Amino acid sequence: MVDLPNIKNYPKETKRIYLIICIFAAFLNKRLANKMKKGLFYAILASILWAIVNPFIKQGLSYDFTPMNFAGIRFTTVGIILFAYTWHKGMWREIRQHSKLFLNLILINMFMGYTAFYFGVDFVSGAISSIIMGMTPLINVLLAHLLASNDKLNTHKIISLIVSLIGLFLIIGMGSNGAPLDWKGITGIVLLLLSIIFQGYSAISVSEDKGKVNPIFLNAVQMFFGGLLIYMVGLGTEGYHSFIGKPGGFYASLAILVFISVFAFSFWFIALQSKGAKVSDINMCRLINPILGAVLSWIMLPDEYPTFSTVAGMVVIVSSLIIYFKGTEISEWFKKTKAGA
């Protein structure tokens, strides 16, 4: 059975949102929760939610809205919602006490990471952005090897990285219509890769500080202040864009994105702070993103459809996940087959 976090000393409001999260998790897949480690379970839930983000971002931006304005409104709204549940006595003292961690999340993860992400998504097709963001775990495995304690590369991880890079090369060579990418598409891919690096560094920081800060409160602070910073910079660089009187599709996209951020980031921080969780193992769950994200883009966005290069890239990248988690079993099977022959 999945071990639940020890929330005895958490504020009453935080206990409520933990209960909502646990009910939501159990509703999605009770059997899955009972069969795997808590960290991996919550990481998979977060990854499934994140997989559907890109099509809704592109849909929201299509209503004559700019990337930083849209991101700022989304994340600030999420922060307000989470603050309503996690507000507690002494929280400002807690923020000052762990100021390095909070500043890391606000400036590097939220501001730099999501500024690069939103412009990157706006520059490339929804399918390609979903698949490029599927490279998140592979880059984070390398970052964990370099920066995290007790999270080093082994033979299977190295093979998995190589296989995944082959998938990336298949993807970045072509646009969603099979034509070579122009400078805008290449810039979008570079921005998405920078976003992965910024957020990977922050994920390692959260994992290294296990148990020091309530993960949902951590999410509330980074969302509110990070979103506010993104919105203010957006006003200066993009100008003010009114979100009043927009078509229903705009508000539907925004509402779905807010819902995803409320739960996905909370799940993610719970996963990273789980006992015994490794950043590399947790991040490999995000290889779910390219499959679901790309398929949703092809379904939802009229100008996007599957090509040989994108589908082949998806297959290769997902194969790397199998190698990562089942490398030992695969090696043993080959040895037995060879010995039997």
Automatic annotation (TrEMBL):
Subcellular localization: Cell membrane
Keyword Methyltransferase: no
Transmembrane stretches, start-end: 40-57, 69-88, 100-121, 127-146, 158-179, 185-204, 216-237, 249-272, 284-301, 307-325
Domain of life: Bacteria
Residues covered by the EamA domain: 38-172, 187-324
Main location: membrane
InterPro entries for this protein: AA-Vitamin_Transporters, EamA_dom, EmrE-like
Listed GO CC annotations: plasma membrane
UniProt keyword list: Cell membrane, Membrane, Transmembrane, Transmembrane helix
Membrane topology category: Multi-pass membrane protein
PANTHER family in alphabetical order: INNER MEMBRANE TRANSPORTER, S-ADENOSYLMETHIONINE_S-ADENOSYLHOMOCYSTEINE TRANSPORTER
Name of the protein described by the UniProt record: EamA-like transporter family protein
